[in-house]
Amino acid sequence: MLAFLPGLLTGLSLIIAIGAQNAFVIRQGLTKKHVLLVVAICALSDALLIFLGVGGLGALIQGLPWLLEIIRWFGVVYLGWFGIKSLRSAFKTQSLDASGTQSGSATKVVTAVLGFTFLNPHVYLDTVILLGSIGNQFDDDKWWFATGAAVGSVLWFSAIGFGAKAASVFMSKPVFWKVLDLIIAAVMFSIAILLAFYKF
């Protein structure tokens, strides 16, 4: 427990900030389409990266700065594209259906969530390098730390995904979807700009 609880709390503290991935999970929950799939992919991806970080991948990535640069610019392009897409959908009447008809096929949803997860260098900095470094301070108990951090991801993504799904019945007005898409566009553009100028 001395390693599990710090892992849980550290994992939650890093993941709770609303970023591109969280914004997408919330929107997907509100559309009530493929919510379990999205939550599962996010939680499993985080767990994989956390365990790889604790296992030593963080040190390897730090030794390959060019890899983070490649991921950075893919992320900038991808987030910019999704921001434009969200901005356009905010002004299209047909995109405001709360029943989720505009949420996309399972394949598109999976592609989007994998993009938000693995094309953001901050994901590697937080999960692989930072959590990996902290976890290794616990020596033999480092895997309990990793388990705690992974459980934190499961709890958070389940809360925002299924919480948004439950709340969607109160958010059926078209104006809500316009505002939500504008907020998501702003989040995507902000993170894309941050990635472009961030000093890794």
TrEMBL record:
Pfam families: LysE
Gene Ontology CC annotation, any one: plasma membrane
Broad class of the protein's primary localization: membrane
Membrane topology term: Multi-pass membrane protein
Cell compartment(s), UniProt: Cell membrane
Transmembrane helix among keywords: yes
Domain of life: Bacteria
Presence of the UniProt keyword Transmembrane in the record: yes
A GO MF label: amino acid transmembrane transporter activity
Keywords: Cell membrane, Membrane, Transmembrane, Transmembrane helix
TM segment ranges: 6-26, 35-60, 66-84, 105-123, 143-163, 175-198
PANTHER family (alphabetical): ARGININE EXPORTER PROTEIN ARGO, ARGININE EXPORTER PROTEIN ARGO-RELATED
Protein name (database record): Lysine efflux permease
Organism per entry: Rhodoluna lacicola
Lineage: Bacteria, Bacillati, Actinomycetota, Actinomycetes, Micrococcales
